[in-house]
Amino acid sequence: MVVLSSFPPPTEGIKLVQSNTGAFINTRDLGQGTLYIAESRVSWVSATSGQGFSLEYPHISLHAVSKDPSAFPQECLYLMLDSRLDEPDEALDNQDSEDEESETDMSEVRFIPEDRGLLDAMYHAMTICQTLHPDPNDSISDGDFEDTEEGEYCLDGAETAENDHDNGEAENMESDMGQFEDADPEH
Fold this sequence. Notes:
Elements: E1 5-6, E2 14-25, E3 28-38, E4 41-46, E5 51-56, E6 60-66, E7 76-81, H1 88-95, E8 107-113, H2 119-131, H3 142-146, H4 161-164, H5 167-176
Antiparallel strand pairs: 1-5, 2-3, 2-8, 3-4, 4-5, 6-7, 7-8
């Protein structure tokens, strides 16, 4: 459960501070405040009440920039959490509820900056900080990449298929590139 409380914002390892940022937990609008993306946690503090919340990176399952108006009416930084976040009054309502949503163990948090042009910077700061907190349950570790043959994994996206594979493999990749030409676009 997330309870809005007064606390000092992070002071160390801050990658981004964004004022005039709205926050939503699930469908509840918390209003405008300041978003702090730090190496240790993501925090948001309300501009009116001074109360806020903090999220630790191991509980953030996914973060993305959402621009789909059918998913949410405003462009936002979307976070999916691995636990259910309820407000105190919402928790009381859900105790007796039998619907499927109240039984899920995930929550959605959305941050909406006043200037939508800052979404990419917010996403980039989150990505940097999230990589500092790898999931201990992941089956791939840094050591796995060191033991592979060169070119087997392209982590930075900067190398081309011709650089990573011999000519025969590159030709096979080129011949497969048209395999999805008849697929319907998602847009």
